[in-house]
Amino acid sequence: MKPAAFAYERPGTLGEALEALARHGSDAQPLAGGQSLVPMLSLRLARPALLVDLGRLAGLDELVVRNGAVEIGAMVRQRRLERDPLVAQHVPVLAAATRYVGHPSIRNRGTLGGSLAHADPSAEYPAVALAVDAEMVVRSARGERTIPARDFFLGPFTTALAEDELLVAIRFPALPAGAGWGVEEIARRHGDFALAGAVAVLERGPDGTCSRASVALFGVATRPLRATAVEQALVGRVLDNVTLREAAALAADAIDEPLSDVHGSATYRRQVTPVVVRRAIEAAAARAGF
Amino acid sequence: MQRVPITLTVNGRSISAEVEARMTLADFLREQLGLTGTKLGCEHGVCGSCTVLWDGAAVRSCLVLAAQADGANLTTIEGLATGEAMHPVQQAFWEHHGLQCGFCTPGMVLTAVALLEENPAPSEEEIREALSGNLCRCTGYQNIVRAVRAAAEQMQAGRGS
Amino acid sequence: MTLQILPRGKWVGARVKRVEDPRFLTGEARYLADIQIPGTVHAAFVRSPYGHARIRRIETSAAEALPGVIAVYTAEDVAALPPLASGLPIEGLKPTPQSVLAKDKVRFVGEAVAVVVAENRYIAEDAAELVEVEYEPLPAVTHAERAMAADAPILHEDLGTNVVYQKVTTLGDVEGAFAQADRVFRRRFHTNRFVASPMETRGCLSVYERASGQLTFYSSTQMPHMLRLFLSLFLGIPEHKVRVISPEVGGGFGQKMTIYPEEVVIAYLGKVLGRPVKWVEDRWENLAAATHAKEQIIELEAAVRADGKVLGMKARLIGDGGAYSFNTASALIEPLAAAGIVPGVYDIAAYQHEVIAVCTNKAPVGAFRAVGWTAAQTARELFFDEIARELGLDPAEFRRRNLISEFPHTTVTGMVYDSGSYRESLERALQLVGYDELRRRQAELRQQGRYLGIGISLYVEPTAWGSEIALQAGFPFPSHDNATVTIDPTGKVRVAVSVHSHGQGHETTLAQVAAEILGVSIDDVIVEHGDTERAPWGMGTYASRSAVIGGGMVALAAQEVREKVLRVASRLLEVAPEDLEIQDGTVFVRGAPDRSLSMFQVAFAAYLDGRVRAEGEEPLLSATKFYDPRATYSNGCIVTVCEVDGETGLVRLDKIVAVEDCGTMLNPMIVEGQVMGAIAQGIGGALYEAMVYDENGQLLTDSFVTYALPTATEVPELVIDHLETPSPVTIGGIKGIGEGGLLASPASVAGAVLDAIWPAGRAIEELPLTPERVLGALQKQGGA
Fold it and tell me: 2Fe-2S ferredoxin-type domain location, by residue (chain B) (predicted)?
């Protein structure tokens, strides 16, 4: 189970990296933490002609608060997100989701940007990004652009990144103090990919009703999805157990292109989606003060 | 064939080498440095047998290209004991029958060492969670958990309370 | 051979920590992949991507041309090598020889078609991709019953059928039992195909010296001597020029207890290429092509009296043997072994079984810890649980009413249970788990819509696989094992044994036996195993045989050496040998401890002082003894407590209690380790693990991502308790222990889940009990 041969470049600056991607297009694959790419290389499922190792690039692992958002460099290691005080304070749902990501040794190497760009439909981070309406900061030799999470995840392992583009940072809007959040996942074993997962962010307005509801699903469809029917059933309501249960029951409506594999069929995932959503919004509601 | 130059520290020794870009760190350690204590159990990052410490943090060496380890400071199982004296985790595994065939043991021991570095007094649940990325087919894990508990106590006591 | 010669003093029965551990803990232990010989070249196999296909053409020139490639071989190139076939002498068993490289046809995904040898494995894999094989895909069959149908695709065309064995055996008055029954129950189970998956995959290294004609073959194997014998026969190399070395083995569990096509090919390549040839299996290969296990379709019937007494049983056991009736013990290894153990600990006077072995387009089935017995135990215990509930009886009580309680007991299948503690183990396990309180709690929680379950698995385990027990279990396999105990001139002890540890701690347990008998410290004893040049002939380690057979033969050999030591010492001290004792390496006169000699002094004199040599005596302080034990059976009871999440079908195991009785224990710490490890494998079999093929024979579970082993978070607290009913028929009263945990725990774990969701579990025929299966059953019942 050894990788097939590839050319290898280890650029010292972002410019060099972008230039390599521009030159080689789809023949080139960027290497971040490698926790998803290297096994694919070993299994020969991925066979890039050129690997562009981002490991030497400076400036891609900053973590700052700016303009009401936590801006996280794409090369920030997942392990750091678990304990960083800024993340804990402003986007706690990201820290919570991290605990479900693989195992500590994976998180020591894996990066936030790598996970998002890899876009595994069963992964947690894409759903978190979707739930909080994060923005992807993307660079290429042609310049920089921002892609909202909503427009970023297109399908299984498919994002809106062009061949020559690199995800360099992600802006997570800070959750207001008092916002509630929940991350729940159903998996066969600890650390496994989710059979169904939900990320929920809820806010309680001054009138005691739900002023904002974001619910993102993962592990159930070809890409993470917002469960808009659930969200609409929550906004403007006082979130008691009955309301939460009734809203959660609508969750599976969002599943258009279901996932299915040996761990769980599409039918099973659809059946447990309302369960995981209910648990996530219950946790979020409790945290939001309902 | 493209060779990538790397310089890294392994068990306190500085190493300069040239590696094929596609060579994994695990294969580099085993084949090029002759440090065969690090094992290959799956080569796709699930079993944890290949675990080494990078600046004290556990990483799966089958999921790192040797080329990426340029500048790294690594500890493999061969570098854990101090001369004749085993590390408390190694000693505890011995006392508590924490190994049978021994194949998962280097990875398991290093993962436990990294855990105790971060969390010197883990609960049973925390130990099991921390080890859940290391597969063992022989022991059923219970004695491993006991060994880690005992090592934690030993190391706390050793720190001189 | 006497039976009481195993003393219990300082060593036997003690929780001695393992002497072999330091080298494993420091990374010094060398497994097959770690052996580095200069000049070694590396092999990679080209394997079939189809479940069933004809091979039309193989083109190797592109692969051969790749720089760094030394050779590419196909079936044509190894025509000198005979096919592998089962040598099991059972009438009616049809042969399905397996070419070491596929010839004309491939019959399962992963079957080896060609082999590439190159300077390193990376290049070998590059070249393997360049080997062009033109296949003509054929329809595949991956379900055993489908494979039995008249219109099924046929794997071995010369047989004209996929059924390689079918036989009905009637024991006792089965008709009468069923006529007399108050109720007749029926149930069907399809047990899952799961695999040993040792953390170390297979591997071998062939080193051939042309000038001397000597082959040294390293292999991660459980049976070095048998492997040497087979290689000698297959390759036509004189056996005295073949040396097999099994280095450290990273788990085997039966999967490495056979000779594989890859081993024959690599051995051969070493001979013809003139360089050491090494093959290290990768995980994909291990999952796809190393032997599979445990899959059977078992239909049971029971004739039951109103009070719960089982009068008779019928069983139809279909073993899904995979593509070849594999050479270990054929496709019968699962269903025939299962048939014998269906009655288990229960007093069943009448029993009819039909054993069927079928070939399908999947990897061949071989041994895996408690082979055959796991499937039977699972089916029967779950069946009995249901019968109990139907009769309104508590499952424990139902078992009580059917237990064998007098020994020796000859079962209707011809097994002679030498001794046992069935009732005691049941009661002890129930007590330890707090059974009555749990049943109360279960009822309470049900009111709240929560599902607590308790699963009981009461088992007997045939152990110490020697000639007699093999025959009782249905397999005529003669068995022969030897130990040589030698004291060197300086008084150090070497114990060379034919069993070979792959995790069981033989270097400690067998040293304990020798140390106890010789009166020395285990620090002065070394156990040698795994190298045919140093270890005497024997069958290897599998089927829970090493404590009994290893312990027994070491005891016999050590006893003889002890007697020699005493004779020499008696001449030096001028007393009768009967007046001497040995303790802590000192030989002394009983009652006059100052009249003593160290073992060093006695041994030195034995070798180098001509005055102590007696007429007609062999002075060498060494003895070789053989042991082929009488049949002996362990037993135990495993109780699992679980809770099922009714919304998701996920199972949380709360606790597992295992009471086991393996007679005299050499080292309780090692016994517990074996039981716990086996239980963890059983959790895998009950809840997580399955080899899944689609209807085209494509393997869907071919990595650790899709084949899910239990981790530390999936194994709950394990409470292990011991009973000791020494065997009346073995040396020291020892019984085997390695397999009981896997024999019995799937039944216990699955039983707990079905108990939790009862009556919803009636619909479940298949394992593992994935969340989807469990939720599906609940929803069918309307319980979710």
Answer: 4-80
Cβ proximity of B53 and B116 under 8 Å:
no
Specify the fold of A7-53.
3.30.43
CATH superfamily of A180-288: CO dehydrogenase flavoprotein, C-terminal domain (3.30.390.50)
Chain A residues touching C282 at Cβ < 8 A: 1
Given an 8 Å threshold on Cβ–Cβ distance, is B77 in contact with C26? yes
Query: What's the mean pLDDT in A155-184?
Result: 97
Q: Does residue A169 register a pLDDT over 70?
A: yes
The answer, yes or no, to whether residue C287 has pLDDT greater than 60, is yes
Q: In b/e form, how buried is each residue of C733-743, taking b as 16+ CB within 10 angstroms?
A: bbbbbbbbbbb
Q: How many angstroms separate the Cα of B27 from the Cα of each of A2, B21, C33, C128, C130?
A: 10, 12, 11, 20, 23
Written as six digits, the tokens of C548 are 């009994």
For residue C685, what are the CA distances in angstroms to A142, C317, C708, C724, C728? 54, 19, 10, 28, 34
Q: Do C283 and A1 touch (CB under 8 A)?
A: yes
pLDDT tens digits, residue range A51-107? 999 999 999 999 999 999 999 999 999 999 999 999 999 999 999 999 999 999 999
All domains in chain B, ordered by first residue: 3-79 (3.10.20.30), 88-160 (1.10.150.120)
Residues of chain A with CATH 3.30.465.10: 63-173
Predicted-complex ipTM score: 0.98
Comparing A83-87, A196-200, C231-235, C758-762, the range with the smallest average pLDDT is C758-762
For A173, counting Cβ atoms within 10 Å of its Cβ (0-12 exposed, 13-18 middle, 19+ buried), the class is middle
Question: Among all chains, which residue has been given the structure tokens 């190497």?
Answer: A109
Indicate where chain A has its CATH 3.30.390.50 domain(s): 180-288
Contact call for A275 and C648, based on CB within 8 A: yes
C-alpha span between A211 and A236 (Å, rounded):
6
Using the Cβ of C713 and the Cβ atoms of chain A, whether some distance falls under 8 Å is answered with yes
Binning pLDDT at 50, 70 and 90, where does residue C5 land? low
Given CB atoms, is C450 within the 8 Å cutoff of chain A? no
- By DSSP bridging, strand B3-10 and strand A225-226 are unpaired
| Six token digits for residue C280 | 């290290």
Query: In chain C, which among 629-658 make CB contacts under 8 A with chain A?
Result: 647-650
Residue C468 has pLDDT above 70, yes or no: yes
Does the distance separating the beta carbons of B135 and C26 come in below 8 Å?
Answer: no
3-state secondary structure of B102: coil
pLDDT at C3: 62
The answer, for C199 touching chain B at a CB cutoff of 8 Å, is yes
Tell me if the bond preceding C153 is cis, omega within 30° of 0. no
Q: At what angle do helices B142-158 and B88-95 cross, to 10 degrees?
A: 140
Residue C244 tokens read as: 């097999």
Q: Among A268, A270, A273, A279, pick the best mutation site for testing chain C contact (most C Cβ within 10 A).
A: A268
Using N-to-C axis directions, what is the helix angle for C506-518 and C551-573, rounded to 10°? 30
**Range list for CATH 3.30.43.10 in chain A:** 7-53
Q: Which of the 8 DSSP states describes residue A222?
A: S
At residue C1, the pLDDT reads 44
Question: Which fold would CATH assign to domain A63-173?
Answer: 3.30.465
pLDDT tens for residues A131-154?
A: 999 999 999 999 999 999 999 999
- The whole-number pLDDT of residue B161 equals 47
Provide, as residue numbers in chain B, all residues whose Cβ is less than 8 Å from the Cβ of C198: 101, 103, 137
Name the interface residues of A facing B (CB cutoff 8 Å).
Answer: 1-8, 10, 31, 34-35, 38-39, 41-43, 51, 53, 55, 79, 102-106, 108-109, 189-191
Question: Letter for the amino acid at A73?
Answer: G
> How far apart are alpha carbons B67 and A237 in whole angstroms?
55
Q: Which chains touch C (3 or more CB pairs under 8 A)?
A: A, B
Distance CA C334, CA C367 (A): 8
